[in-house]
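Hi all, long-time lurker, first post. I run a small reading group and we've been trying to get comfortable going from sequence to structure in the token notation. Rather than ask abstract questions, I figured I'd post a concrete chain and ask someone more experienced to write out its structure so we can walk through it together at our next meeting. Sequence below, copied exactly:
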Amino acid sequence: MMNDSISDMIIQIKNAARASKPSLSIPFSKFKMAVAETLVKEGFLKSISKKGKKVVKLLELELAYDGKTPKIHDVMRISKRQKMRT
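-- Answer (accepted) --
Happy to help. Here is the structure in token form:
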């Protein structure tokens, strides 16, 4: 069974935003950090920070809101392998 950690991360962000959480913690990976940095740059997250040492590392993601409305409100996974319909 394969896990898609980036899809899981995005869904966790969306769910935290729907629950009006100010932040969430997810397991750290360099790839997730790179994706989170892009989300900060694009304005979907306020900030990110790396927590923990050695064995247990976490990313702390602070969510961005427009007033009470979360910046991330709907997500869709589109596979590169999926053929485009013409």
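A couple of things your group might point at:
Residues 5-70 form a domain with the Ribosomal Protein S8; Chain: A, domain 1 fold (CATH 3.30.1370.30).
The first strand starts at residue 23 and ends at 27.
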